[in-house]
Write a structure and sequence with these properties.
459 residues, alpha+beta, PmbA/TldD fold, 2 domains, 5-stranded mixed beta barrel, 24% helix, globular, TldD/PmbA_sf, Metalloprtase-TldD/E_cen_dom, PmbA protein, metallopeptidase activity
């Protein structure tokens, strides 16, 4: 590991003082909202800072420093709701935001589902989830790191051009407070490295990339390894062919497989359900996946990409199964959607937290990527999908794709300009195995996913 990748302590970390200032501001605005006649109020305030450097062909393309502030207020006058926000934390702007939210609430229609979350559900424990790892990387060091990453990739024979390397440093401070007396502070860091390359031969050019995203810079893959990975992926796509139209087993690489889990989350989320716009409507307690498959939410993972002790409404998060033995165990709800459905919040206002696919295969334990290729046998490995052809209402799935044709458990040749299609309901029930090759760069944690069959449309 290069010394420039190791995080170092800043001379002065003011994050706690900044959180205290945001908390004091939030509490003061809630008091003023109540004095203005609001029966309930909630505030979300944030400060995001970062550095983003882009390097291409060894030269600096862009250097961006950001310090963004956000302040959002929602007030309730009974069951009438008004919301307003500002990116300016000075007193006049905050007061104007309060006045605007109150004015909106006085003239909106009553909504029986409106209001804060149940006060009994507010979080009262705030464990250290190890999310705060400031990276004291100055601009010259970030540029040098980007140049090394790009140089590592461009050194491979066959790489003809570069779309650039990126180095991003990010810190986020946020406070959520409401008139139940709840106040929650969160601070987290998120850093990333990426590289996109172009390779060419007599048959044309191909592009691919790789990236890494971590909470702590000490967890990054080595700069040389990232460059090698991006180059290897790009070169492997040379000589891509089209396939004839057929049906075959399909293996989704881990970074693509998490999209399948994301579609499941979307289909069982409150907004789609109370609008009756989901193919999994009324499916709690019914099989949606094979009986050996389990998907569990673990919000309190140390350094997790989606970790948090409370959701966007202050509701305490907890470990909870989404799919248990193939059966849909619950929906994904905040308090508003829960009230619309006559249910209770699942602590998911603002989204899901660290959803983990805990599965193997029907007849054996989990396998690494090579093992999953052997299970696939002969079929399609998908490493890229394109387009928005997913219908959450019907479950129909049809997307452009690229990847590799696999024969006898070994990659035979790259493929491109194909479309893969099926219905998500059948796709989920047709899962044959989930690999141990988990991609850790997301809050949706899954290995590669093998499906029994899909239609491949090509030549």
């Amino acid at each position: 590991m290069s010394a420039t990748l190791v995080p170092s302590d800043r001379p002065s970390d003011r994050s706690q003082q900044d959180l205290d200032r945001l908390a004091e501001l939030a509490q003061d605005v809630i008091r003023r909202a109540r004095a203005a006649g609001a029966s309930q109020a909630e505030v979300a305030a944030s400060i995001d800072t970062g550095l983003n450097v882009n390097v291409r062909l060894g030269e600096v393309e862009t250097v961006e420093h950001n310090r963004d502030r956000g302040f959002g207020l929602t007030v309730y006058f009974g069951q009438r709701k008004g919301s307003a926000s500002t990116a300016d934390l000075n007193p006049d702007s905050v007061q104007a935001t309060l006045d605007q939210a109150c004015a909106i609430a006085r003239y909106t229609e009553e909504d029986p589902a409106a209001g804060l979350a149940d006060p009994a559900r507010m979080a009262d424990a705030f464990p250290d989830l190890d999310l705060w790892h400031p990276w004291a990387l100055d601009t010259p060091a970030a540029i040098e790191l980007g140049q090394r990453i790009e140089a590592a990739g461009r050194a491979h024979a066959g790489i003809t051009n570069s779309e650039g390397a990126s180095v991003q440093v990010g810190e986020s401070l946020s406070v959520y407070a409401n008139s139940h007396g709840f106040i929650g502070r969160e601070r987290g860091t998120r850093h990333s490295l990426s590289l996109s390359l172009i390779a060419g031969d007599d048959d044309g050019m191909q592009r691919d990339y790789w990236y890494d995203s971590v909470r702590s810079a000490g967890d990054f893959m080595d700069a040389q390894a990232l460059g090698d990975k991006a180059a290897g992926r790009t070169l492997a796509r040379l000589g891509a062919r089209r396939l004839s139209t057929r049906q075959s087993p399909v293996l989704f690489a881990p970074e693509i497989a998490r999209g399948l889990i994301g579609h499941l989350v979307g289909a069982v989320s409150g907004g789609a359900l109370y609008r009756r716009a989901s193919f999994l409507l009324d499916h709690v307690g019914k099989p949606v996946m094979p009986s050996w498959l389990r998907i569990v939410e673990r919000p309190l993972l140390s350094r997790g990409q989606g970790s948090g002790a409370f959701d966007a409404e202050g509701v305490a998060t907890r470990d909870s199964s989404l799919v248990e033995d193939g059966v849909l165990a619950r929906y994904v709800l905040g308090s508003y959607s829960a009230r619309k459905l006559g249910l209770e919040s699942t602590g998911n206002a603002g989204g899901i937290h660290n959803l983990i696919v805990e599965a193997g295969a029907a007849d054996q334990g989990r396998e690494d990527f090579d093992g999953m290729l052997r299970r696939l046998g002969t079929g399609l490995l998908v490493t890229e999908v394109m387009g928005q052809g997913v219908n959450t209402i019907t479950g129909d799935y049809s997307r452009g794709a690229a990847g590799f044709w696999v024969e006898n458990g070994r990659i035979a040749y790259p493929v491109e300009e194909i479309t893969i299609a099926a219905n998500l309901r059948e796709m989920y029930l047709g899962i044959q195995a989930v690999g141990a090759d988990v991609d850790p760069r997301s809050h949706l944690l899954t290995g590669s996913i093998l499906l029994d069959k899909m239609t491949i449309a090509g030549e």
